[in-house]
Amino acid sequence: MESNPDLCLTVRDSISDEVKDKGMVENALLTKPGGEDVLEEYKSENSLKHRTRRQLVNILASHMTEMHGRIPSRNQKEKFALGIITLFPSLKDPFSPKGYLNQDFLLLFGAETASKMLEKWDTAFKPKVIKEAKHLTQSTELCRLLTAAENLSENDHTTGRIKISPSDAVGKMLHFHKSCCSIVEHLQGREAKQPYILAVGRTKNRIDAFYIVVDKQLIPCQATSSLGAFDELFKSHYVFNLSYDETLVQLFTFMQTTVYNIDITTTDESPRVREFRAKVLHVV
User: I need a labelling partner for 254 at 20 to 30 A (CA). Which of 3, 166, 198, 267 fits?
Assistant: First the structure.
């Protein structure tokens, strides 16, 4: 059987890139404070504790910005991400196309920014958002959403540049799919260009798994709650370099600047978003 020279060359180049990127990450850790501790923990445990993962990301994010500036290119980020999963194979995400969806966002913004949503939403933002929503005109639909928000550990909320009802806004972000039905049929029937959450379960009150759908491709969420799934939905826009849905621009812009604190001074915000942030953060 004849070998394919082009295939052999591609495989050899791929292996070469992995070796180079692995060496780049390893050298960075060996020359930065705390880096050797990360390597030692992985060597002894074949894994990294949550605290150590944050330390790893902070070290490499700092090193990457030193080398390539504050906004490194996608190719540069992917080289670091490839180096991470080659040096630390147990950190590879088996469900993402290249194994490092979450690492890509972490390397771009750091562990502190990546964790803001899950760490601060319930305590710092959710009660204030609910309070402000109660001052809006109380339609039946809004009352239903407020009741759900107060009864659950997470909530749905929307503001929109284009007039859109709360249920339509939720429909842009989240779809429920019965686990007994074909997901393939659902994907074939959807023409959405922006990513959305697909919640799969026997009923809407018993969700078994969440997915991010991007270009009719399923990416299983690591999260087991709708709040965590929304966190991954937001991050997917940056990982895949996607624009926000035009009907949800204000919602995602609010999350970007107020919750994640990303590009606060350079993002074009509507007066409504700035006013709402001031109310939520109690800034006069």
Answer: 198
pTM of the model: 0.60
Q: Give 284 or 66, the one with higher predicted confidence.
A: 66
Q: How confident is the model at residue 145 (pLDDT cuts 50, 70, 90)?
A: confident
pLDDT of residue 1: 45
Q: Which residues, 6 or more positions from 228, have their beta carbon under 8 angstroms from its beta carbon?
A: 118, 210, 221, 222
121 occurs within a structural domain: no
Residue 165 sits in the same domain as residue 270: yes
Q: What is the DSSP string of 228-263?
A: HHHHHHHHHHHHTT-PPPGGGHHHHHHIIIIIS--S
Q: Is 80 in the same domain as 138?
A: no
* pLDDT > 70? residue 161: no
Q: What are residue 203's phi and psi, to 5 degrees?
A: -140, 170
Q: How far apart are CA 261 and CA 239, in angstroms?
A: 17
Question: Do 154 and 243 fall into the same domain?
Answer: yes
